[in-house]
Each structure stands twice: as structure tokens, then as C-alpha cells.
Write a structure and sequence with these properties.
This protein is an alpha/beta fold and 218 residues long. The protein is 23% helix and 31% strand. It is elongated.
Length: 218
């Protein structure tokens, strides 16, 4: 069996005591066991749950039965009743605290992953040696790390100004008016600025997305 999983966010912590990376609800477990029973050599198979990519602000998942004999040495493994579950090492942190469940809409079919984790929409922007005053540091971060990542989507971000510990940023190009821009600002730009520049404690989107007032100038 191989199936693509959808994501439905919910917050929780990984069950470190039991060794589970992802919790499997009773309903989801029953569904998985039902499908597993129809497989050849079902006793030798494990359920493998992996993050295989990114779609927008969500991870993309793959669910498959694989022979236990083919499990990687660094796979995280645990038992859920009669079911053995495997999570690849590179998916463990991204799946931590997740729940595998049936969808809330019975007509949807399949399974969903309710995951509190989100990918950085800017990707891995790495580290940068920032110098100068706070506005200069923000501008350097935008120009040398954030904007090259946004360029692949036809967008860019510009610093409008800094007031006390708040940076005001506008988003242009493909980011202006984009429905994903708020997620990009919150999950990507804001996180990158707060992580790289401790003097900044908040980042505000000052973009005129709908011809309204610019909050930096009001």
C-alpha cells in the first residue's frame, strides 16, 4: 500500500516515553490494519510514514507498507499494538507531535496527518554575518538571504523602517496581494529576522495589499 497524506494541523508534543513520533488514533489504526491484512506476507511488513516534500505551507507525506527487513538502521521504530511503525530519520523532527487520523469529512477518504510543524516557506536561508545598525542588519538579511528565496516566486521584501524593536516590511512583486503572503511573512520572513537579529522582537507587514493605509505611516 502507498498513499499520499493530507495535513490537518493540531498542536501536541511527541510521546517521548513510549517512543512514538506520531500518534495513531484508534480509527486510523483500524483502517491501517484492515488494509495490512489484505497484503501478502502481512506479518513481515511495517507501516512507514515519511515527509517527502513541501506543498505551500504544508508538508507532503507518504504512507507505505515496507518489509521490516528493508528498514534503514537509522529509522525510528516502535510498535502500536500488532503494527510496527517506521519513521525515517530525516522525517522525525518534522513529524514530531503529529497525529495520524481519519479525515473529519467521512467523504474525503484516506488518512490525514494533523501536524503542528510547518516548513519554512523560504527554505533553508542559512546563516549570515550581519553588521551595522539594526536597520542595516535587516536590510542585509533581506537582500542576501530572504529575497533570493522569494525571487523564485517572483517576489521580494523591503524594509520600510524600524521603530523601537519592531521592523516594518513590505512585500512586492508576486508577494503583493498574494493569499500566501501572510504565511510567508509569519512563517518565513518574521522567523528569519527574529532569529538573526535579537534586537527585533516583532515584524509587521506594511504592504498595501488592498489599497488600504500603510500601518507604518499611520
Amino acid at each position: 500500500m502507498s498513499d499520499q497524506l493530507t495535513q490537518d494541523p493540531i498542536g501536541d508534543a511527541a510521546d517521548e516515553q513510549s517512543g512514538q513520533v506520531i500518534e495513531i488514533t484508534e480509527a486510523a489504526l483500524a483502517k491501517v490494519i484492515e488494509i495490512l491484512d489484505g497484503e501478502d506476507d502481512s506479518d513481515s511488513l511495517a507501516l512507514r510514514i515519511a515527509v517527502t516534500g513541501v506543498s505551500g505551507i504544508d508538508f507532503v507525506y507518504d504512507l507505505a507498507f515496507v518489509p521490516l527487513a528493508e528498514a534503514e538502521d537509522d529509522d525510528h521504530r516502535w510498535s502500536n499494538g500488532d503494527l510496527t511503525v517506521l519513521v525515517p530519520a530525516d522525517s522525525r523532527d518534522r513529524l514530531g507531535g503529529s497525529t495520524l487520523d481519519l479525515p473529519s469529512n467521512p467523504g474525503q477518504g484516506g488518512l490525514v496527518v494533523r501536524n503542528p510543524n510547518r516548513p519554512n516557506p523560504l527554505g533553508d536561508i542559512g546563516t549570515l554575518d550581519l553588521v551595522g545598525e539594526v536597520p542595516e542588519k535587516v536590510t542585509q538579511l533581506l537582500e542576501q538571504r530572504i529575497n533570493p528565496a522569494l525571487a523564485s516566486h517572483g517576489g521580494f521584501a523591503t524594509l520600510v523602517g524600524v521603530e523601537e524593536h519592531t521592523a516594518y516590511v513590505t512585500m512586492g512583486g508576486g508577494c503583493q496581494g498574494c493569499a500566501m503572503s501572510q504565511a510567508t511573512l509569519t512563517d518565513g520572513i518574521r522567523a528569519a529576522i527574529l532569529d538573526a537579529i535579537p534586537e527585533i522582537t516583532d515584524v509587521v507587514d506594511a504592504t498595501d495589499h488592498s489599497a488600504g493605509d500603510n500601518p507604518f505611516f499611520t
